[in-house]
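for ur thesis appendix - DUF2474 domain-containing protein. copy paste whatever u need, i formatted it the way the template wanted (i think)
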Amino acid sequence: MSQSQAPLWQRLLWLAAIWATSVVTLGAVAGLIRVWLKG
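the 3d part is after this line
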């Protein structure tokens, strides 16, 4: 690999993707817990 660092836009894209995945995952877990507690 000739480049040691990815371009800024690519790093920001990864950051946004990881953030969005964590938000969705936490939302899904919270929803499951809410359903389970109501159950």
